[in-house]
């Protein structure tokens, strides 16, 4: 069964529409001119307009390098009128990602990427996973779960959240034993390599949550190979586009609402 991420995201946004929109700015910081990043920010802007959130994009030059970017990100995010800040990833390769991300105050860290982030918030990828698993009523305690990739946005936080929740948990990368994936009841992937996961190689009734994305000849594709016949073997899967992406955006705004509420208390 194909998961309708747009429908799930709409449900999350409708819940937020019942609340008063925060009267603070959600600041999105874009370093450079990556077209995919700009596209993601446009999607976030559309959601902000629907909710009545003051969403502003701050463009910074990669020529600022580490210290300059850290200084500017801190300056933007620490403004009293800013309730939450996002540093759009990926950053340029020569930038120390952790150094820059840590300049966002934890009370305004919507993506929950700062090393100092604490409290009740989970990263949007974790919240997206939780939303899908709850809707599909998948029992983690009886499931063998394989997380493909250990990146800061998807694999690492999800694996941390899954620890002690499932029957078995395996985190693999390109150098790991790929046979583990054949035993999985649930595969969660965020590598960004088109067709990395062939549904024919998964067991009957397995489920796939695909966070991976890549531009393949102008078409946005995920890690899961879109083989219509083979996909019927799966319990459920998320397509790309229209799968995890819209839910991630909705969950990001959910975090923004929570952070602004805590700032008022």
How does this model look, in words?
Helix content is 35%, strand content 17%. The chain is α/β, with parallel strands linked by helices. Strand 1, helix 2 (35-51) and strand 2 form a beta-alpha-beta unit. It starts with a helix and ends with a helix.
- Name the beta content range: 15-25%
Most strands sheet: 5 strands, parallel
DSSP, total strands: 10
Average pLDDT, all residues: 92
Shape: globular
Helical content, roughly? 25-40%
Derived from helix and strand composition plus strand pairing, the structural class reads alpha/beta
Give the gist of this structure.
The chain has 265 residues and is an alpha/beta fold.
Topology (SSEs and partners):
Blueprint: H1 5-17, E1 25-31, H2 35-51, E2 54-60, H3 65-77, E3 82-87, H4 97-101, H5 124-136, E4 144-148, H6 155-162, E5 168-172, E6 186-189, E7 207-210, E8 214-216, E9 219-221, H7 228-231, E10 236-237, H8 244-264
Parallel strand pairs: 1-2, 1-3, 4-5, 4-6, 6-7, 7-10
Antiparallel strand pairs: 8-9
Helix pairs in contact: 1-8, 2-8, 5-8
Could you name the key traits of this structure?
265 residues, alpha/beta, five-stranded parallel beta sheet, three-stranded parallel beta sheet, 10 strands, 17% strand
């Amino acid at each position: 069964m194909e998961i309708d991420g747009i429908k799930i995201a709409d449900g999350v946004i409708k819940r937020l529409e019942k609340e008063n929109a925060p009267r603070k700015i959600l600041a999105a910081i874009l370093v450079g001119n990556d077209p995919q990043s700009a596209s993601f920010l446009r999607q976030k802007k559309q959601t902000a307009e629907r909710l009545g959130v003051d969403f502003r994009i701050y463009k910074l030059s990669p020529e600022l390098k580490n210290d300059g970017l850290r200084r500017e990100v801190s300056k933007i995010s620490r403004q009293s009128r800013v309730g939450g800040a996002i540093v759009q990833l990926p950053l340029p390769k020569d930038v120390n990602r952790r150094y820059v991300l840590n300049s966002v105050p934890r009370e305004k860290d919507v993506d929950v990427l700062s090393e100092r982030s604490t409290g009740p918030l989970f990263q949007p990828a974790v919240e997206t996973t939780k939303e899908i698993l709850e809707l599909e009523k998948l029992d983690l305690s009886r499931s063998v779960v394989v997380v493909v990739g250990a990146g800061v946005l998807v694999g690492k936080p999800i694996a941390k959240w899954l620890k002690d929740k499932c029957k078995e948990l395996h985190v693999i990368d390109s150098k790991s034993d790929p046979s583990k994936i054949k035993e999985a009841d649930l595969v969660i992937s965020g590598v960004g390599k088109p067709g990395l996961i062939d549904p024919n190689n998964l067991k009957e009734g397995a489920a796939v949550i695909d966070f991976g994305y890549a531009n393949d000849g102008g078409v946005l594709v995920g890690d899961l190979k879109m083989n219509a016949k083979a996909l019927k073997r799966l319990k459920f899967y998320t397509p790309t586009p229209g799968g995890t992406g819209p839910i991630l955006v909705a969950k990001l705004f959910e975090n923004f609402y929570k952070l602004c509420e805590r700032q008022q208390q």
